[in-house]
Amino acid sequence: MKTDLQIAQECTMEPITAIAAKAGIPEEFVECYGKYKAKISDKYYNQIKNNPSGKLILVTAVNPTPAGEGKTTVTIGLTQALQKLGRNAITCLREPSLGPCMGVKGGAAGGGYAQVVPMEEINLHFTGDLHAITTANNLLASMVDNHIQQGNDLNIDPRKITWKRVVDLNDRQLRSVISGLGGKVNGVPREDGFQITVASEIMAIFCLANDLKHLKEMLGKIIIGYTYSDEPVTAKQIGTDGAMTVLLKDALQPNLVQTLEHTPAMIHGGPFANIAHGCNSVRATKLGLKMADYVVTEAGFGADLGAEKFFDIKCRKAGIRPDAVVLVATIRAMKYNGGVAKADLSNENLEALKKGFVNLEKHIENIQKFGVPVVVTLNHFVADTEAEVAFVKEHCEAMGATFAIARVWAEGGEGGRTLAEKVLETLETKENNFHTLYDDNLTIQEKINCVCKEIYGAGSVSFSAAAKKTLAQIEQLGFGHFPVCIAKTQYSLSDDPKLLGRPEGFEVNVKELRISAGAGFIVAMLGDIMTMPGLPKRPAALDIDIDEDGNIVGLF
Length: 556
Hints:
Helix content is 37%, strand content 20%. The protein is of the alpha/beta class. Strands 1, 2, 3, 4, 5, 6, 14, 15, 16, 17, 18 and 19 form a twelve-stranded mixed sheet that branches. Strands 20-22-23-21 form a four-stranded mixed sheet. A three-stranded antiparallel sheet has the order 7-12-13.
């Protein structure tokens, strides 16, 4: 069987100018990055912003398992299928991070015959957006330390600096460090630390900004720490909002690439859904809605994380609304949730399937709480039996969800025709009463309780002493109207990765609250979640290489 990389490398790509022309973008608005990648100029959006908006289709999934669910693959395959049906559709995805790419998860360019290309470049350095975000983040960090070194006019308490440095790799060694050692000339010694780039508040701001002006305003509101008298200090006070905006100026323009079937795809922004809001940029989504009749986008990890944040953060802040949701599941994932070992997932096991179906059941219920019609798609594997498929179909339809099988990994757009037809039928016939889960006027504590109980199924929520202190600070600073961005494990509906299926009545612990004043939300850290991942025992980087002709091997 061919690998994803081999399939991608066999593709004969069209010049990106041809893809742009298919999408109706005049050449004057296409800024090429080589032959097969481009950025779309801000001026193009300004020209078409009054066009009617297309339909927005969100693709989400059940909680991820080692068996793989194929959410990005289905997102791409659905777009290819819509194009095959003669519909004007475009894909909007997030940019991959080098951390998972070199670590354990792999890339984020789809799989099989439903991929975006050039796959290697997208999964590696791409157009440099993540490097720009890394640099802007670290410029602010260095300016904060320099301010203290040069006299500290703002009276910043080095013990209360909350802004961390970032690197786009998994490196547990950098989670907690001491910086500024080596004498007075090297700065003021203090506790410091690193996050992975995609966890930076700048990544969140980048993905929520409407334009350069909005970006600069949001960057200026970042709280970098506090004074000796506990007053917040912002990036604007440090004076770096302008320089950071300059560093992000080109990156803010959406990236254009193509699928294996030469349909247009925009890939822009890349926050993780387990530690951030997990959606591609507002800029790319809004541009896509003005360019195409159908925009197919995804939200990270399971619907308990990515979809909830798409609805409650992205839609709320961007003023957009989804028209339908595609919920991706696999029989293998359900059997895994039913207690079957990974090695045995190819064997028919209706009892385990019934036991593990409750995870999918909860995700269907959750999406219905937002008033959006849902299509459950079974990402098909060759080992799936007729009896297993029939069981899932019957139970999904009994819950009021439309059901379709997708074979896009093996067949590309052709394998997604049935799904595309079901999505179009849903858009035309099902009522959409989209609304967010909670009201802005609830307190932060009430919002956290709402998400944990309604979406995760928790019985109670406890707050650490540190989190309670921050709750009071949030109200004092006037941020109580912010939405919440909950950071927790992606592997379970709970905050314990070992609790599979549909755990109920459990207690979650909010160990820390972080104020993302620039992005405009409050981050709640649950359980043992970390914003700097570590590498596994056998990192994926060990299998990645390049031959003497410059061909990359081992990249999935």
